[in-house]
Specification:
Shape: elongated
CATH class of the largest domain: Mainly Beta
Strand content: 15-25%
Number of strands: 8
Number of domains: 2
CATH topology of the largest domain: putative membrane protein from Corynebacterium diphtheriae fold
Oligomer: single chain
CATH superfamily of the largest domain: putative membrane protein from Corynebacterium diphtheriae superfamily
Distance between the termini: 24 Å
Order of helices and strands: EEHHHEEEEEHHHEH
Helix content: 25-40%
Length: about 250
Amino acid sequence: MEKNATSVGSGPYINDSYAIRHLHFPINIKHSIRYNQEWHSDIIVIILLVTTSILSTVLSYYFFDIKEGWRAITGGIFAIISLALFIFLLLAIHKTGKPHTFFKRGVLNPGIICHIGDGYVGILVLAELTINATSWGLVSLQAKRLPGHNLTLGERIPVTCCFIENDSGHAFAIAYALPIAWGTNDASVIQYGIDSIPQQEWDILEQLKKRYKDLDRDHFPLASTLPERLQYLTSDEIKKLGLDKIFES
C-alpha cells in the first residue's frame, strides 16, 4: 500500500488485538490539531501533569534539608511524587500526545447525527466490542465542530473507535471515538469511509437512533471517555438485528 493511499483493511497489532476494519488514510496533522477535541482534552491533562510535576520538584528542593529530619522526609516525599508524576507524564505523552495517534489504530464504525444542539451535534455510533462472546454497543458523542459534513439530522458520519478492556473481560469498552472528519479535510476520504461500511450496519443504526436521547441524558461535551455514554446491546438484540452474523466468514 502506498504511503498516502486511502484503503480499508486490518489495523496494526496493538494490545494483543487488531482492528478488523481500519481506515488507512493520510492524516492532516494541522487539521487534526485544530479539530480533534479528544486530543484537546488529553492536552489539558498533560499540561496539568507538567504543572504538578514542576511544583512537586520545587517543593522537594525547598523542603529537602538533611540537617532537619522532618524537612528531609517531606522533601523526599515530594521527590517521589515528582518522579511518579514525571513517569505518568511520559506515558501520557507517548500514548496520547499526538493528535493523530488514534486515527492510526481504531476500528471504522458507522455514526449518524441524531441531534443538533446549540454549538454541537450529537452523534450515535454503532460499534463492535467483541472479546470472547459477540458484543455490540452504542456510543453517544458530541462534536463541537465537524468539518466536511452538512450537519443535518440523519447524516452519516464515519467514526474510528479505540477500545480498552472493561472489568468483565467479555467485551471492550470505548476509550476514544473520533469522527474521521477530525483527521482530514479531504471530502473524498470521508466519503470513502462511509462507503466502506456495509449498508446493513447503517440500516441497523437507523433502527437504533432513538437510543441517542437516553445515552445523551447528561449532556457532557465529550462522550467517548465516559462509561455512561456506552450502552451494550443485549444478546437478544444482537441476534434480532443480525449483528451476530456480520463478521462471519
